[in-house]
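To: structure desk
From: M.T.
Subject: fold request, one chain
Message: Could you run this one when you get a chance? Sequence is below, nothing fancy, just the single chain.
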Amino acid sequence: MILVLKENYDKKQLENLTSWLKEQNIDIHLSQGKQTTILGLIGDTSALDIDMLSTLDIVETAKRIQEPYKNANRKFHPDDTVISVGDVKIGGGNFGIIAGPCSVESEEQLCTIAEDVKASGAKMLRGGAFKPRTSPYAFQGLREKGIELLLRAKEKTGLPIVTEIMDLSHLPLFKDVDVIQVGARNMQNFELLKELGKTNKPILLKRGLSSTLQELLMSAEYIMAGGNSNVILCERGIRTFETATRNTLDLSAVPLLRQMTHLPIIVDPSHATGIAKLVKPMAVAATAAGSDGLIIEVHNDPPHALCDGAQSLTPEQFADLKKSVDNVLPFACRS
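Reply: Done. Structure tokens follow.
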């Protein structure tokens, strides 16, 4: 349930109302927008008399919310959420690109790529230290050593780092990581999401391979219910019958999620297509669709990459992509 307050509400009345609601075991999310103040009521609101609440002097309207996600719901929070990562902002009209290799392979490789993508305008550095792979015989990442190398690249370039967590037991290793990525395979690892909700770190949450948008938002809700509202959603392609690309990039998710949630939405055209030549056109399309950013795989020697070289751009190709995205950005659909 949400209560939309009148423009010049009485603060003492608000205190009395919130105290009474807490006595009814209702949690309250206060959202103060530019023009509207909203109380989001979280919990079992079935016993609350909506007609009585509507008649209160400070209440403009009272509405029941049918969607099961509350904290992530735009009805609770009409204004876009802006996630701050150091000096970088994502959401609310702030657009940023995260770029870097699929896997951290060596300090030289990582730092070279970091310097190149920064020079082209990337705002954050991605790199996999722990790698979920379909085959148990494939390269699984440098693990703790990979995080150490990411931190060295950050020290050299100043770029905040983004890397994926695979297991709850690894969480202590991520204390200096700027953005923790939850991959598609872990989108519904609810115990992991609960623990990430207890941190204050930004979480980049990728959509599962066969997950609906509501399921994605319910996973975000697990994190937010724990107290961490710093969630960035990522559309990375879904599993369909089509085999011409690695996945099917669902760009309709961007404007749909824009209506459903206030959280920032970024797009990963690298994992979605799996084909380097398709990354640029889909990145441009994602930008035009109104995404808040992109996450792009870049490697200095894609043919010899230890992981996902076929979908990785060279630094030169990334620079070209960035120019095309910048040209489209002023015309992006934000409604």
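Reply (cont.): The chain is about 30% helix and 20% strand. Let me know if you need anything else for the meeting.
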